[in-house]
C-alpha cells in the first residue's frame, strides 16, 4: 500500500537558554500508509504532541526528513506549508481553536472558502452534509459560544473535513469530553477513516486507541514499540477484546 506520511531520523530540539537544550524527538522513524488509522500513546512529556506537530509541518523539525504524499515538507516555505495544510491535511485539537465571533456554520466553511477548491454552493452543501453526519445540523446558525464541549468537537471535525483532506492529525480529540461524548467522537472518526482518510491521533485513552488499527508507544522521544490491532469494525462486538488486548500490551510497555 502507498505511504502517505513518513519521518526518517526526525529530531526536534528546543533551546532553553544559552547553554541548555532539550532533545524532545530523537531520530524518530514513523511510516503511515494511505487510509491508515494510527494512535500514538506514551507517558506525559514523552514527545507525542511534538511528533504530531513536526510531522504535520505545524512546527519546524531540527533534523531529519518528513515526506507527506511524496513531498519533503522541511524544504517548503511557510506559504507552501500553509497551502499544503489547508488543502491536504485536517487538524483536530483538544483546545479546538474555533473563532468565537463566527457562527458554527461559518467556522466550518471558512477554510474551504480560503482553499477555493469548490464553488461556494458546493462548500455550503458539503458543510451541511458533514453537520448532518456528525449530528450538529440544528446548530448551524448558533453562535459558537452556545455549543457544548462535545458539540464543539464535532464542529472541529467538520472543519477538519471540509476540504476533504488525505490525512487528519488529532491531538487528544476526546481529552476534554465525558466518556459518552468521547465514544461518539471516536465513532465519527472511525467512520471518517472508513472513507479512506488516514488519521494520526495522540491519546492517553485506551478506549480511543483501541479503535485505531496500529498503536505506537513513545518513551523519551523515541518510538519503543508498536501494537497491530487491525481495522476496527463497528458492526462486530470486538471492542472489549481489543481494549483488553491493548491494555495488556500497554502494561507490558510500562504505561
Ligand atoms: N515550545 C516548547 N519549548 C520548549 N519545550 C517544549 C516546547 N513544547 C514542548 N516542550 C517540551 O517537550 C517535551 C515533550 O512535550 P509534548 O507536549 O510533545 O509531550 P506529550 O507526550 O505530548 O505530553 P502530554 O501527554 O503531557 O501531552 C516536554 O518536556 C515539553 O515540556
From TrEMBL:
Record-annotated ABC transporter domain positions: 5-245
Pfam families attached to this UniProt entry: ABC_tran (PF00005)
Record's signal peptide: none
Entry annotated with the keyword Nucleotide-binding: yes
Gene Ontology MF terms in the entry: ATP binding; ATP hydrolysis activity; transmembrane transporter activity
Cross-referenced InterPro entries: AAA+_ATPase, ABC_transporter-like_ATP-bd, ABC_transpr_LolD-like, MacB-like_ATP-bd, P-loop_NTPase
GO cellular component annotations of the record: membrane protein complex; plasma membrane
SMART domains named in the record: AAA
Membrane-traversing stretches: none
Keywords assigned by UniProt, alphabetized: ATP-binding, Nucleotide-binding, Transport
Keyword ATP-binding part of the UniProt annotation: yes
Family (UniProt): Belongs to the ABC transporter superfamily.
Protein name as catalogued: ABC transporter ATP-binding protein
Organism: Salicibibacter cibi
Origin organism lineage: Bacteria, Bacillati, Bacillota, Bacilli, Bacillales
